[in-house]
């Protein structure tokens, strides 16, 4: 049986991977754009804007909420969601710093590497 080796990596890399995984689906990126534009949004409005079924939108919202990028409440038959800006900003900044760290090494590239 294969073992999950994610825990063998540093915590910051695990957090960055989780953040980028949340952003890896076009529907979740589109949902974040809608929420950012409207500040708050009822799930039904997202369904009207995006070419997705209600159940699909709900599943993606659930993943974004579990990942901490979105917060929301269920009030009767409607749900209200918004971006959790503190969490989003922290995750984005950690990701950006890590990309900058990786890019520092591009000047060390060997001329004939993979060419």
TrEMBL record:
Database matches in PROSITE patterns: HTH_ARSR_2
Ranges where the HTH arsR-type domain occurs: 8-103
Pfam family, one: HTH_5
Transmembrane segments: none
InterPro entries: ArsR-like_HTH, HTH_ArsR_DNA-bd_dom, HTH_MetalResp_TranReg, WH-like_DNA-bd_sf, WH_DNA-bd_sf
Highest rank taxon of the organism: Bacteria
Keywords: DNA-binding, Transcription, Transcription regulation
NCBIfam families xrefs: HTH_metalloreg (NF033788)
Record protein name field: ArsR family transcriptional regulator
Organism, scientific name: Leptospira vanthielii
